[in-house]
Amino acid sequence: MNEMLIGQAGLIGQAGLATRPTPDAAPASIPAPAPIAGWATAAGGYLLVALVLRGLTLGVPALHVDEQFYLLVGDRMLHGALPYVDIWDRKPIGLFVLYAAIRALGGEGIIQYQAMALLSATATALVVNRLARCIAPPAGAFWAGVAYLLYLSAFNCFGGQAPVFYNLLMALGAWAMIPIMTRDGQRRLLARGCAVMALVGIALQIKYTVLFEGGFFGLALLYRAYVDGQSRARIGLSALIWIAVALAPTALAFATYAALGHGAAFWFANFQSIFARQEPFLPSLGRLVKEMAVLIPLWLAIFHAPGRALAAADGTTGWGTAPGNNPAALGFLRLWAAFAMAGFLVFGSWYDHYVAPLLMPLSILAAPMLGRKAPGLRIYTGLMLGVGIVAAAYTTIHETTHHASSAQVRRITALIKGQLGHGCAYLNEGDPVLYLTTGSCLLTPYIFPNHLSGTIDVDSLGINVDAEMVRIMARRPSVVMISADPISKPANRASRRILLTALARDYTRYAVTRGGYHDFELFRLKPGLSPGKPG
């Protein structure tokens, strides 16, 4: 094992990180910390940018379907529901705990989670700024933070998608890594590494794909220990401790579920189901091509940056611990970007919000070319801003019109509540936030729209989807909402036929209403039929 770790360490060393010091090496100089005024100015600027990008959508109930679902799960957890058992998804429990905590703040939870997401994005942009100061002048570092916010919205993270929250944890982890990787003879390396791995561990419980970035942080820590001259035995022990710290939150979650008798449900949802999805390749490839095209301004800046990286940087990250113009920081940032790219590419689905973890290291690496005043270099900042603004505006407008507007949500909520009585609603397709606004009970754990209405997850739920649809309709929901035409692509035609057959037998259509781009049909039970109850 030690030989393998040392071999990996060699790869890190080739990227330009710290090397083993000679006995007579002079200690690195330590610049003074950045003034508080600089922090406040940057933070204020990023908050203003975030408000411009997100202000008009604050309080809109139906943004991305994912975050609607996260808020719903968080709400139901506060009422005793257990994820993976009472309400199913494959996301880590930490994400739902986060939303439950936000839901506990009061109100409807909608503007609350969006405000927390806005603050998280702003804080991440500030950390991006401080990291960029290692390799770029202040102007470039500032625009790197702006780039992060712009492209976060461009890639459908203008609300509360999971990366908006876990990116902050990983950015803080990278910020903590910089002084570790740029100073020789680290004291308390084990404790500092534990702090970094604790951030990685918490982030893992928001999205497991941070395993790639976290794994790189771990390898970098081991390399740091190696170049500092630690023994193989000590390096091996440190590796075990750091791995244990990173996995502790996940292990605690699994142990809790196992103690409740639901360990198998937790294991399947978290670690097995993802590999049974049937993601069509060509649509995924099309998404990948578009995503890489939108990032062209950052790619161009990064391609031309090597000659200017470090040239005007003061090396300050805000802690006053990174020597100025140190290539070790640049090497670390480049490898971070490579591992983040691996985490993005490996699963092959390439949805737009999966790009979000890449935006931190890419924005930082582009920083040396941003904010330049020379005529031949101004184009980089202009191109980054222009493409970012257009892409962010297009995505925000498209997504907010694709889903139901606030007025449409209120109308559909009233239509459902008026017929709900003492029964439950079943929304085969549409915005899951309607379960929250109507207060409806649930007749099935599988309420995320695509799970039963599409074919991508037909083999990844651990159930027979057709049998589940029969079971739902046998329990007679008070209200059923379906789309006039299937929304999920590809649609599950078999489960839809079962649903339509039951509707024709036991239900009457009482309303057709618009929600975003789609028409929805609402059905109520025929007279004489009583609704069922959850259980």
What does this structure look like?
The chain has 535 residues and is mainly α. It folds into 2 domains: 379 residues, no CATH class; 120 residues, no CATH class. Helix content is 59%, strand content 5%. It has 21 helices and 4 strands. A 4-stranded mixed sheet has the order 1-2-4-3. A hairpin with a 2-residue loop joins strand 3 and strand 4. Helix 5 runs parallel beside helix 7. The longest helix has 28 residues.
Give a quick set of tags describing it.
single chain, 535 residues, mainly alpha, 2 domains, four-stranded mixed sheet, 4 strands, globular, disordered N terminus
For the biggest β-sheet, the strand order reads 1-2-4-3
* Beta-strand segment tally: 4
Q: Which percent range describes the beta-strand content? A: under 5%
Number of helices: 21
Principal-axes geometry comes out as globular
Structural class: mainly alpha
Overall number of domains: 2
Question: Could you describe the largest sheet, including whether it forms a barrel?
Answer: 4 strands, mixed
Helices and strands, in N-to-C order?
A: HHHHHHHHHHHHHHHHHEHHHEHEE
Overall helicity: 55-70%
Q: How confident is the prediction overall: mean pLDDT?
A: 89
| Stretches with pLDDT under 50, minimum 5 residues | 1-16, 18-34, 318-324
Distance linking N and C termini: 50 Å
The Rg value, from CA coordinates, equals 25 Å
